[in-house]
Amino acid sequence: MLTVNQRSYRAPTQPTVVVCVDGCEPDYLGQAVAGGHMPWLKRALAEGTGLVADCVVPSFTNPNNLSIVTGAPPSVHGICGNYLYDTASGTEVMMNDPKWLRAPSLLAALADAGCSVAVVTAKDKLRALLGHGMKGICFSSEKADQCTEAVNGITGVVALVGKPVPSVYSADLSEFVFAAGVKLMQTRRPDVMYLSTTDYIQHKHAPGTAGANAFYAMMDGYLGELDRLGCVIALTADHGMNAKVGMDGRPDVIYLQDWFDARLGPAAARVILPITDPYVVHHGALGSFATVYLPAGVSAASVIGDLRALRGMEAVLDRAGAAERFELPADRIGDIVCVSERFTVIGTSASRHDLSGLDAPLRSHGGISEQKVPLVVNRPLPGIDRNRRFRNFDAFDLALNHAQ
Rounded to whole angstroms, how far apart are CA atoms 193 and 310? Predict the structure, then answer.
């Protein structure tokens, strides 16, 4: 047994693959299975185990991927967004540097214990975090042509996969992840593999649409290949996805920095959007979760009531309340945390969001409304309590401790 972050895991007796499908709310799978687009998943659900789990809030990529590979919430591993306000330096920074991590990953621990481990992620922003301290293979689709033995544990990835490096704004970026996973399993047969995709398709296509079904049909084919290679597969997601528009089809936005500027004066408060990353064409940096740093002398209690009264706001909590409810590191969130409703997003100032790159009605995530995600294992799991609350970061526990 191996203990990591106060959870114990058995070593795999069969090759084990955990897949994080970015932005995959359960309805994507339901619609695709019902339409006949995912025959492997239909069989896996019948012969294995299909659950609905909760992801971490904020329902963003970095916090949830790190929760999955550490088996713990952000209060333990420290990654509470894609982006944060570093109070020590007074700057806003990306949380893609391993220096922000506060806990070891199960992947690194498995490698140290003698397991061969491989990680393939779509965007390079996650690679260093997922591979921190890990001996093994770790690379991204985005920079698959730049792999070295020293940094990535592998070279010649493009030739191995037989596909060109895809555009970061394409479904091909995720397909490369799956294709690489199959090739690695065929040629290297790692004991444990973690595959993490991008939500480009989910930001543009609702469940049951032709674009979504084509993506899930592609994914189903590769998962079937991994199954035929004898892999235990656990499939989950980092977050769900919802339309964030009004009846006129335009983004329904609460511009929170503008609200605070009008109330407290320009730039007196600082609104941080943890969804922010380099790939804003997906979402225009608009999500359903924001954190606010107040100026000296202004209490959270003095504004929370009015914030809760804003149309489209679902929850407003002070620092302590948010840290407790959402299992967040209190020192890395602001004085106030705001979460908007299913159809609404939060922005800073209207002048600071360029939405010209949105070529489809806005779909985004970040809130409580995107917390439900699938948790599917291609094996029966006798003895588990299906009525308990499952989390996406239970994926490795189910795959290693129950499915082998």
Answer: 44
Token pair for 34: 């019902």
**Residue 224: CB atoms within 10 Å:** 19
Q: In whole angstroms, give the CA distance from residue 337 to residue 248.
A: 28
The tens digit of pLDDT for each residue in 144-193 reads: 999 999 999 999 999 999 999 999 989 999 999 999 999 999 999 999 99
Q: Nearest to residue 152, comparing CAs of 137, 142, 166?
A: 137
SS3 of residue 12 by DSSP? coil
- DSSP type of residue 398: I
> Tell me, what amino acid is at 331?
D
| pTM, 2 dp | 0.96
CATH of domain 253-364: 3.30.1360.110
114: Cβ contacts below 8 Å, ≥ 6 apart: none
Closest listed residue to residue 124, CA positions, set 102, 148, 99, 96: 96
Upper half-sphere CA count for residue 243 (Cβ side, 13 Å): 11
> For 297-320, what is each residue's pLDDT tens digit?
999 999 999 999 999 999 999 999
Q: Are 185 and 226 in contact (CB under 8 A)?
A: yes
How many C-beta atoms lie closer than 10 Å to residue 39's C-beta? Answer: 13
Of 116, 106, 113, which is closest to residue 189 (Cα–Cα)?
116
CA–CA gap between residue 22 and residue 156 (Å, rounded): 26
Q: How far apart are CA 133 and CA 126, in angstroms?
A: 14
In this structure, the number of other CB atoms found within 10 A of the CB of residue 264 comes to 16
Task: Please give the structure tokens belonging to residue 146.
Answer: 């730049």
Structure tokens at 233: 């597969």
Task: Tell me whether strands 16-20 and 7-9 are parallel, antiparallel or unpaired.
Answer: unpaired
Fold of 2-240+371-402: Alkaline Phosphatase, subunit A (3.40.720)
From 118, 67, 80, select the one nearest 394 (Cα to Cα). 67
342 φ, ψ (degrees, to nearest 5): -55, -40
What residue ranges do the domains of the chain occupy?
Answer: 2-240+371-402, 253-364
